[in-house]
Amino acid sequence: MSIRYAFQRGELPELTLTGHELQQAGFSAETLFRISLYRNGLILTRLDEDTDIAALLAELDGNETEGADWVGDNGELILAGDWLTQSGLLGQPLSIEVRVRSRMFFRQFPMIDSKRWL
């Protein structure tokens, strides 16, 4: 999986994921997914093709910790702006875990506290 960080117009952080592994995880072009903030990262959950988009948008309206998006026509999954800053992922080593071809977990790579081992 290819991961690229960038800043749109020098301000808005953007994380772009591409590659065969992304497609194998079920996140292919035009796949709709739900985004949820959690402790130190994000959870992306793939949604079914028969998801009622109007009902989903009504459910998520005004929710600051959940949203929805889709993989672009070109197969790029782009996370940008507040999702990266609020999750604490920006500029951190990432751990990406895929479960059951429908969910991806993005979190800060666990750092070992060297003092614990002294």
UniProtKB/TrEMBL annotation:
User: Taxonomic lineage of this organism?
Assistant: Bacteria, Pseudomonadati, Pseudomonadota, Gammaproteobacteria, Enterobacterales
| Natural source organism | Pectobacterium quasiaquaticum
Cellular component aspect of the GO annotation: cytoplasm
The record places domain Toxin SymE-like at 68-99
Name of protein: Type I addiction module toxin, SymE family
A GO molecular function term, named singly, is: RNA binding
Q: Name one GO biological process term.
A: RNA metabolic process
What sections of the protein cross the membrane?
none
